[in-house]
Amino acid sequence: MSNEDNVELTDGFHVLMDTLKMNDIDTMYGVVGIPITNLARLWEQDGQKFYSFRHEQHAGYAASIAGYIQGDKPGVCLTVSAPGFLNGLTALAHATTNCFPMILMSGSSEREIVDLMQGDYEEMDQMNIARPHCKASFRINSIKDIPIGIARAIRTAVSGRPGGVYVDLPARLFGQTLSVEEAKQLIFKPVDVTPAQIPAADAIARAAEVIKNAKRPVVMLGKGAAMAKADAEVKAFIEQTGIPFLPMGMAKGLMPDTHPQSAAATRAFALAQCDVCILVGARLNWLMQHGKGKTWGNELKKFVQIDIQANEIDSNQPIAAPVVGDVKSCLSLLTEALKGAPKAPAEWTGALKEKVDTNKGKLATKMAAPVAPTGMNYSNSLGVLKEFMLKNPSINLVNEGANALDNTRMIVDMLEPRRRLDSGTWGVMGIGMGYCVAAATVTGDPVIAVEGDSAFGFSGMELETICRYNLPVTVIIMNNGGIYKGNEEDPGNGLVSCTRLIRGRYDQMMEAFGGKGYLVNTPEELKAALEEAVASKKPCLINAMIDPDAGVESGRIKSLNIVSKVGKK
Ligand SMILES: CC(C)(COP(=O)(O)OP(=O)(O)OC[C@H]1O[C@@H](n2cnc3c(N)ncnc32)[C@H](O)[C@@H]1OP(=O)(O)O)[C@@H](O)C(=O)NCCC(=O)NCCSC(=O)C(=O)O
Ligand SMILES: Cc1ncc(Cc2csc(CCOP(=O)(O)OP(=O)(O)O)c2C)c(N)n1
Ligand SMILES: [Mg+2]
Predict the structure, then answer these.
(1) Where is the Thiamine pyrophosphate enzyme TPP-binding domain positioned along the sequence (predicted)?
(2) Domain pair 9-186 / 201-353, same fold
């Protein structure tokens, strides 16, 4: 298009697209509508990928985990204004809480109408509403600011402690025009958006001293270390020092769960008995009981903490040796500083190994137990998946639920990093199908999702999305007919228990969209279905019937529930 002076013009749609492409972003997840439908159309016509979801929350979860898997590039979610923005905001907050780099872009109303509250179509002050729930919230009002605005959003999302960034796009921005020549001058790719953050030499020396004097050290690996892709540095540090390690859920596979130094199978003993705990990209938050209490032997441990965020240090407990920097730089320097130092004491590693072997033996017995008349339980069903994943480690494992989550985390060993994608820091339900779409589209590898039947319900409609894009996703529903369990007594007066669900034919739901459904009642049937489903590289759903009595309310975190002391009024 040219203007009256025959100057070739571009517009907001195309400057935004060209800026995203300049930054190696070729994929967006979202739901179309006013005012962004034509952006999605033009994006697809330009040969880029737009995964069109059924609900913005799941598109947002897809973008959040895409950012985690990629690490140095944010996942991008595109939504309409107001309700679409709000649906995406949950995922943006989830990304920020989990430190996943993600950008939520939403169409919006013009400032002058919003500020006078004149009742625009889907009017909402989105930029300000987003601000408390993300690392930064920007609004781009002028076509000339699109390149710098997107550059700021990308750098903010991926640098330092990664997180979510909101970019507000008023409808009129897309229709603004600019000469192609000027646009070319303005569009740029920011330099070094994830710079190394080198720790101070004295911090390394202090940490090395604490570790050298430790009698019973452990390493706790967090998903921050997994996202940093510090795979080689973690391996070198662990194996040079001989220190036992434990992974948080999504850090499983950073070191293979089958590694001889893994103490995961005796977590309680390891944390209670250790004298020094080295936190690597892991926060001392609720998932680690804030570093205090029975879990930690009711005594203050000496903590070495490697974290990119300076004010994470001392967040919950005094940290004896803070090491602020990126995981790769910190571990490389710490490994160098510990060269020649004695390995972790054999008395300690031997004691852990003994308990690990005992606990693994106990679990093996549970996994081999015959199926009761009331159906499979979590152990003898997930034992099948354990064996399958050991033979097929390059598969993405999505996981949510309560018992479905905790038992899968405990039973299913991971051998590769960034493959286990679960409810994360918030323990949120609903990440399932969005994570499946992103894991399949970002990695190109098959996905298995182990879903509690309640958890699946949060995103189940996205089975249609998975079928529409014909993704290699196998969903396993752990169908115990309930939130936590399926056998709670009804409260009476014709009311149905708040934790009961219909033990539905989810396999038929998948078939409704053209996928393949399996209904299985035994580990043998589960094994056969799993092998066939994953080999097909097609959308499949295995409806695994689990004993309604299997499971515990809230799984491993039952103690967080407050129980009334005054009983029924
Ligand atoms: C908080 C936690 C980090 C605490 O970890 P733990 O559960 O104590 O440990 P793990 O899960 O690692 O292991 C559990 C136990 O199994 C043992 N274990 C682990 N692996 C093995 C193997 N391979 N063999 C044998 N035994 C094993 C381990 O030593 C622990 O036993 P011991 O050593 O004997 O202790 C974890 O529970 C967690 O990540 N929970 C997430 C909860 C969540 O988000 N739920 C969804 C929302 S629920 C909700 O919102 C709601 O209900 O409402
Ligand atoms: C957004 C949100 N809403 C509710 C909840 C609370 C919850 C935690 S776990 C769970 C489902 C547990 O049942 P499921 O069938 O999935 O698993 P299982 O134990 O194997 O039976 C709920 C509702 C959370 N965490 N997030
Ligand atoms: Mg259930």
Answers:
(1) 412-543
(2) yes
Quick: pLDDT tens for 523-568.
Answer: 999 999 999 999 999 999 999 999 999 999 999 999 999 999 997 7
Are 183 and 297 within 8 A, CB to CB? no
User: Does ipTM come in above 0.95?
Assistant: yes
Question: What sign results for the dihedral spanned by CA atoms 313, 316, 320, 326?
Answer: negative
Q: Which of 466, 476, 478 is nearest to 539 (CA)?
A: 466
Other CB atoms within a 10 A radius of the CB of residue 232 amount to 11
- Ligand 2 within 6 A of CB of 404: yes
How is domain 201-353 classified at the CATH fold level?
A: Rossmann fold (3.40.50)
322 cis-preceded (ω within 30 degrees of 0) = no
Q: What are residue 62's phi and psi, to 5 degrees?
A: -60, -45
Inter-residue contact 157 to 135 (CB < 8 Å):
yes
Q: Is 557 in the pocket of ligand 1 (CB under 6 A)?
A: yes
Q: Which of 55, 429, 456, 487 to mutate to test the pocket of ligand 2 (most atoms within 8 A of CB)?
A: 429
Query: How far is ligand 2, taken at its centre, from the CA of residue 438, in Å?
Result: 22
- Ligand nearest the Cα of residue 409 is 1
Interstrand relation of 27-30 and 49-52 (parallel, antiparallel or unpaired): parallel
Atom number, ligand 2, closest to the C-alpha of residue 423: 25
Per-residue pLDDT tens over the stretch 247-304: 999 999 999 999 999 999 999 999 999 999 999 999 999 999 999 999 999 999 999 9
CATH of domain 368-545: 3.40.50.970
Residue indicated by tokens 């879990």: 295
Domain boundaries, the chain: 9-186, 201-353, 368-545
Tell the CATH topology of 9-186.
Rossmann fold (3.40.50)
